[in-house]
Design a protein that fits this description.
Elements (H helix, E strand, L loop, with lengths): L5 E5 L5 H10 L3 E5 L4 H9 L3 E3 L2 H7 L2 E4 L4 H9 L4 H4 L5 E4 L5 H13 L3 E4 L2 E2 L1 H6 L3 E6 L2 H11 L3 E7 L3 H29 L4 H8 L7 H6 L15 H17 L5 H18 L9 H7 L5
Parallel strand pairs: 1-2, 1-4, 2-3, 4-5, 5-6, 8-9
Antiparallel strand pairs: 7-8
């Protein structure tokens, strides 16, 4: 049994709820504040978490302060807002941001906190709600070595933390993953549409490619549950991927790095989001091809 610590958690959403549940399961004290989805807060409180009226009240009670919210503005509001975590952090605390945001914003946030004597790690995750629920998330941690070591026992309750470098590198590695999945999803959709239009059995194609060089996780595991099943509910929202890709493109511009494939993929996702799929799984981008393959479906 690891040492029990007090953990404040801001962002009891689709990912935050199961992550907070893992912390409770590991025996930690978890304190949360109200979320726009009241049902999630009520559930986690019923399972043993405590509720505080504001993030600042959370910080007064907790040693570790976790944020897991949609984007940099929400992270900044949760930490630096009038009733934010920093307002209640009278002594040095350990802030861990598990959101996926721009590494540029992450470094700025870390600098502000370190000026007040606080510790900080960026620790975005990959694995979705299913792996959040069973505590097997991939956690990419950007932090000083000593801070990573201090946070590791806590992070292990939620998944498998890897130290990938200094502050900001966690977000950099996470955005690298997002660049890959965005482009691989587009490649899968285009390739399977090619096969379908030619009259091939898509299930047979997938079975064969599973042992060929084109094999990938999205093709074998994700698409059968989403696009191929015509089920776009849940999963990973297209708008969240678009947000991540825009953060990656912003960072790339500061490095004078062209990323034409990612820029093009972002336009496809933007176009499909505008057609009503913003909250649907990002595999819905494959609908672009469906208008050309309807007559070849089996």
């Amino acid at each position: 049994m690891q040492t029990r610590v007090s953990v404040g958690f801001v962002g009891i959403g689709t990912m935050g709820e199961p992550m907070a549940r893992c912390l409770l399961r590991a025996g930690h004290e978890v304190v949360v504040s109200a979320h726009h989805n009241r049902q999630r807060v009520d559930r986690i409180v019923a399972e043993g978490a405590r509720e505080a009226p504001t993030p600042s009240a959370i910080a007064e009670r907790c040693e570790f302060l976790i944020t897991c919210v949609p984007d940099a503005p929400q992270v900044e509001e949760a930490i630096f807002g009038r009733a934010g975590l920093l307002a209640g952090a009278g002594v040095p605390k350990f802030f861990i941001d598990m959101s996926t945001i721009s590494p540029l914003a992450t470094v700025r946030i870390a600098e502000r906190l370190s000026n007040d004597g606080h510790h900080f790690a960026d620790a975005p995750v990959s694995g979705g709600p299913v792996r959040a629920a069973d505590g097997s998330l991939t956690i990419m941690v950007g932090a000083a070595t000593a801070d990573f070591e201090a946070a590791t026992p806590l992070l292990k309750a939620m998944g498998n933390p890897s130290h990938v470098g200094a502050v900001g590198m966690g977000e950099t590695v996470k955005l690298t993953n997002q660049i890959l999945i965005a482009n691989i999803m587009m490649a899968n959709a285009e390739a399977l549409s090619f096969a379908r239009k030619a009259g091939a059995d898509v299930d047979v194609v997938r079975d064969v490619i599973a042992s060929a060089t084109g094999a990938n996780y999205l093709l074998q595991t994700w698409l059968p549950k989403t696009w191929l099943a015509q089920n776009f509910e849940g999963g990973f929202a297209m708008d969240l991927l678009r947000k991540d890709l825009n953060a990656a493109l912003e960072a790339a511009r500061t490095m004078n790095l062209p990323m034409p494939s990612t820029a093009l993929a972002t336009q496809f996702y933007t176009a499909q989001a505008a057609k009503g799929d913003a909250a649907h799984d990002y595999s819905a981008v494959a609908k672009f091809y469906e208008q050309f393959t309807q007559d070849s479906r089996r």
